[in-house]
Amino acid sequence: MGRTLKRVPLDFDWERGVVWAGYTLGLCLEMELFYKEKSCEYCKKFAKLMKLPIKGDCPRLPFDPPEGEGYQLWEAKSEGSPSSPVFKTLDELCEWCAENATTFASNKATKEQWRKMLSEE
Fold first, then answer.
1. For 70, phi and psi rounded to 5 degrees?
2. Within a 13 Å sphere around the CA of 121, how many CA atoms are in the beta-carbon half?
3. DSSP per-residue letters across 62-90
4. Nearest CA among 7, 11, 43 for reference residue 25
């Protein structure tokens, strides 16, 4: 499927479609080339979310997103990035997925099918 369920804090604030910095930090030059901006900003945002101090250098790989009470769909084929907003319940996430996410190419699934797929993880 190329998607996975992650439990993150309800106020988790990482842009959808942007690779989670915890999987790429330490590759500052590549991040600058890929994102076309200073990677230090991603390092600072990442450190704030993870409650890590940064003193001159980037934190080193890898760091998973912080765990929490929320439910979020993540892209899992490449480095990994959020694909959905964070929801309070798995049902809310599955309802969102039925309307907004695909399982493969343009194929969609029902809320119940999403629940089964995500629960099996």
1. -85, 165
2. 16
3. P-PPPP-SEEEEEE-SSS-EE-S--BSSH
4. 43
Reported as a pLDDT band with limits 50, 70 and 90, residue 63 is confident
Q: In the chain, what are the domain boundaries?
A: 3-86
Tell me how far apart the alpha carbons of residues 65 and 63 are, in angstroms, rounded to a whole number: 7
What pLDDT sits at residue 58? 59
Question: Would you list the DSSP string of 9-60?
Answer: -TT----TTSPPGGGTTT-HHHHHHHHSS-HHHHHHHHHHHHT---SSSPPP
pLDDT band at 31 (very low <50, low <70, confident <90, very high): low
pLDDT of residue 47: 75
